[in-house]
Each structure stands twice: as C-alpha cells, then as structure tokens.
Amino acid sequence: MNVEHEINLLVEEIWRLGTKNPDGTLSVKFSYSGELLLQGVHDILLLQD
C-alpha cells in the first residue's frame, strides 16, 4: 500500500466535498449511522486540510 498516494486521495476528497471556513480552512463533516453509537467513538468527526 502506498500511504502517500492514499493520503493524497483523501486530501482530494476533502477539497471536493469540503466547505471553506471563515478562517480559510477547509472541512468535511460526517457522522456514523449504525445500530450502536458509542460516545467518543462515533461522535461527529471533522476533517480539515
């Protein structure tokens, strides 16, 4: 597995799906939908570039 390539793919998706914040950063918010949600483990995550 080429880790650098995988990270670049992730960054591309953040740019594609992201929203520009007032401070200039880009973020993508997503959550987990499943039968069991665990606090801390399945909280809403924020990815930033």
Q: Averaged pLDDT, please?
A: 77
The count of DSSP E runs of length 2 or more, i.e. the number of strands, is 3
Overall shape: it is: flat
Question: Helix count, per DSSP?
Answer: 1
Work out the radius of gyration: 13 Å
* Class by alpha and beta content: alpha+beta
Oligomer: single chain
> Which strands sit side by side, in order, in the main sheet?
1-2-3
Portion of residues in beta strands equals 15-25%
Helix content: 25-40%
Low-confidence stretches: none
Largest beta-sheet characterization: 3 strands, antiparallel
Distance, first to last CA: 22 Å
Please provide the ordered H/E string of secondary-structure elements: HEEE
Please give a structural write-up:
Helices cover 31% and strands 22% of the residues. It has one helix and three strands, in the order H-E-E-E. The chain has one helix at residues 3-17; strands at residues 19-20, 26-30, 45-48. A three-stranded antiparallel sheet has the order 1-2-3, with helices on one face. A hairpin with a 5-residue loop joins strand 1 (19-20) and strand 2 (26-30). The longest helix has 15 residues, at 3-17. The chain starts with a helix and ends with a strand. This is Costars family protein ABRACL.
What is the structure about, briefly put?
This protein is of the alpha+beta class. It has one helix at residues 3-17, and strands at residues 19-20, 26-30, 45-48.
Question: What are its keywords?
Answer:
single chain, alpha+beta, three-stranded antiparallel β-sheet, flat, 49 residues
How would you summarize the topology of this molecule?
Blueprint: H1 3-17, E1 19-20, E2 26-30, E3 45-48
Antiparallel strand pairs: 1-2, 2-3
Domain Costars: 1-47
Organism: Laticauda laticaudata (Blue-ringed sea krait)
Protein name: Costars family protein ABRACL
